[in-house]
C-alpha cells in the first residue's frame, strides 16, 4: 500500500517506525539502509492531524494483516 506525502510516494510495507517529535516533525523510518524521512508541519494542530491520519492507516493495515 502506498500513500503520498510531500510529493513522495511512500510504501507502507517498508516502514519500520513512525515517531512524532519536537512539536513540528514526524519521522518515518524504513527497512532499507536504515533510511528515514522527516515531515515538517508549521503548527501543532496540522502535525497532530497528520499523525492521526498516519496512525489510522498503519493500525488499519495491521488489523487487516491479522484478519481482525
Quick overview:
With 68 residues, the chain is α+β, with helices and mostly antiparallel strands. 34% of the residues lie in helices and 38% in strands. The chain is globular and about 30 Å long.
**Number of helices, counting only DSSP H or I runs of 4 residues or more:** 1
Contiguous runs where pLDDT drops below 50 for at least 5 residues? none
Strand content: 35-45%
What gyration radius follows from the Cα positions, in whole Å?
A: 12 Å
**Broad structural category:** alpha+beta
* N- and C-termini, Cα separation: 18 Å
Q: Give the ordered list of helices and strands.
A: EEEEEH
Instruction: Describe the global form.
Output: globular
User: What kind of sheet is the major sheet?
Assistant: 3 strands, antiparallel
Oligomer: single chain
Count of DSSP strands? 5
Binned, the helix content reads 25-40%
Mean pLDDT: 84
Note down, in words, how this protein is organized.
With about 70 residues, this protein is an alpha+beta fold. Helices cover about 35% and strands about 40% of the residues. The chain has one helix at about 45-65; strands at about 1-5, 10, 15-20, 25-30, 35-40. The strands form two sheets. The chain has a three-stranded antiparallel sheet with strand order 3-4-5, covered by helices on one side. A two-stranded antiparallel sheet has the order 1-2. The two termini are about 20 Å apart.
Amino acid at each position: 500500500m502506498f500513500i503520498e506525502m510531500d510529493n513522495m510516494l511512500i510504501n507502507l510495507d517498508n516502514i519500520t517506525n513512525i515517531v512524532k517529535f519536537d512539536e513540528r516533525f514526524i519521522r518515518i523510518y524504513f527497512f532499507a539502509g536504515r533510511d528515514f524521512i522527516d515531515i515538517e508541519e508549521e503548527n501543532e494542530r496540522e502535525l497532530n492531524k497528520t499523525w492521526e491520519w498516519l496512525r489510522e492507516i498503519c493500525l488499519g493495515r495491521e488489523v487487516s494483516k491479522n484478519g481482525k
